[in-house]
Amino acid sequence: MPLSSEKHQELEKFAKEIRVNLLETLNHLGFGHYGGSLSIVETLAVLYGQVMPMTPEEHARKDRDYFILSKGHAGPALYSTLYLKGFFDKYFLHSLNQNGTKLPSHPDRNLTPGVDMTTGSLGQGMSVATGVAYSQQMEKKGFYTYTIVGDGELNEGQTWEAAQFAAHRQLSNLIVFVDDNKKQLDGTTSDISKSQDFVAKFDAFGFESLRVDGSDIGAIYQAIERVKASGSDNPKCIVLDTIKGQGVEELESMTSNHHIRLDARQKDILDGIAKRLRQELEVAR
Question: What does DSSP assign to residue 3?
Answer without folding.
Answer: P
